[in-house]
Design brief:
With 206 residues, the protein is an alpha+beta fold. The protein is 47% helix and 23% strand. The strands form 2 sheets. A 4-stranded antiparallel β-sheet has the order 1-8-6-3, with no helix packed on it. Strands 5-4-2-7 form a 4-stranded antiparallel β-sheet.
Length: 206
């Protein structure tokens, strides 16, 4: 009876040992397989850390078109005559108020000086006659004639001064001479173009 119980216990212990051995071998094999895959396939990765900052997104748009100067002026002759003087050439820079050309300037200047002298004479004559009128040495008709002469001389002076001013072509803008229509010595009529000046500080794209 004791022998049979001892034999049974020995068999149970043997079975338990066999069962424990069979469970531990697959786990160890799987662990070895996992270690082999990790060492073979996993490679180190470089990581770059950057700080987050606010920035402006710049977008460029490229288009085709024609650029034109916003300020483009053609200066023309106001009177007819011969071109006596040109101060700028093609491509030169012109300033606001600069004299660009003179047209029959010498003749217009002479006529203005003559008109000034006639006006001065008429004015002095009227003043002398007015002084004599107070002394009742001349008639009222002579005073009236002197006043008429003074008025006519003043009108002629204004016309001569206006023509003298028109004989000078001045620039009204700052810019570059884009076109030159005449040369010194040429004859031009009223309205004939002399220079074209453009200011490229501000341009228009069409």
């Amino acid at each position: 009876m004791k022998r049979a119980a001892y034999t049974l216990m020995l068999l149970l212990a043997l079975l338990a040992a066999i069962s424990l051995l069979s469970c531990s071998q697959p786990a160890s094999s799987a662990q070895n397989d996992n270690e082999t895959v990790t060492a073979k396939d996993v490679q180190p990765v470089n990581i770059r850390v950057m700080s987050v900052e606010l920035s402006t997104l710049k977008e460029q748009i490229v288009v085709s078109g024609e650029t034109l100067a916003d300020n483009d002026v053609t200066f023309s002759a106001e009177i007819g005559g011969r071109i006596e003087y040109l101060s700028v050439d093609l491509g030169a820079r012109a300033s606001k108020g600069q004299i660009l050309a003179r047209i029959d300037y010498e003749m217009q200047k002479a006529q203005a000086d003559q008109a000034q002298a006639q006006y001065d004479l008429a004015l002095k004559t009227l003043e002398r006659l007015s002084a004599l009128k107070n002394e009742e040495l001349i008639s009222q008709q002579q005073i009236d004639e002197a006043e008429t002469s003074r008025t006519l001389a003043e009108s002629q002076l204004k016309i001569a001064q206006a023509n003298l001013s028109k004989s000078i072509v001045k620039s009204t803008i700052n810019g570059i001479v884009a076109r030159k229509f005449v040369e010194t010595g040429e004859f031009v009529g009223p309205g004939s173009p002399v220079f074209q000046i453009v200011d490229f500080k501000r341009v228009i794209v069409k």
